[in-house]
């Protein structure tokens, strides 16, 4: 891909294109990378949430499970992302450029972050509310679906916001192993010029990553508001 874009020449003393000029010349590639970056950021969060819900529920109901969950999740989150990306092909039997490597690695990080958050959110449900639900005849699963999870939504969505922003940042590192996403702009900025960093693609990559993180964060905030209508009612009292 980098070879196809070519190096930035200095033709007749002419300056290389600036930020807008670079985006205009490579709009198709940049939008393709933006789409892949968003997909590789969001999919692991969805997978991680699905895995974290039962783990967090178990840890909130079994005292012995919570310390183990905290220890294991903390250990997993300390693994360097680049090392994990490189190790994934050997673990999964995939090719080095397969996006599955990034999805699985970031899903591990997301579970490491969210499992404890889910456990804390479910554990923070007031005891009198839980007892009232049990007295009304709710089974444990009914109480989880209709009482515990709705009340834990603000805590869980706060964790989701952190996970999404972290993933947007971590996905960019995958460009160093050849996975096409916005991180490609950073590598291009350092490789397209023989006289030093070429800043337009680097700045463009930073701006798009920040905008993407803000948009995804806003989506989670709106989902949180939609799932917790009673909080708006309380705020207006």
TrEMBL record:
Family under the similarity heading: Belongs to the binding-protein-dependent transport system permease family.
Intracellular or extracellular location(s): Cell membrane; Membrane
Protein name: Glycine/betaine ABC transporter permease
Pfam family membership, one: BPD_transp_1
Span of domain ABC transmembrane type-1: 34-220
UniProt keywords, alphabetically: Membrane, Transmembrane, Transmembrane helix, Transport
InterPro entries in the cross-refs: ABC_transp_perm/SBD, MetI-like, MetI-like_sf
Membrane topology field: Multi-pass membrane protein
Chief site of localization: membrane
Membrane-traversing stretches: 33-57, 64-88, 100-119, 151-178, 198-223
One GO term (biological process): transmembrane transport
GO cellular component, one term: plasma membrane
The organism's place on the tree of life at top rank: Bacteria
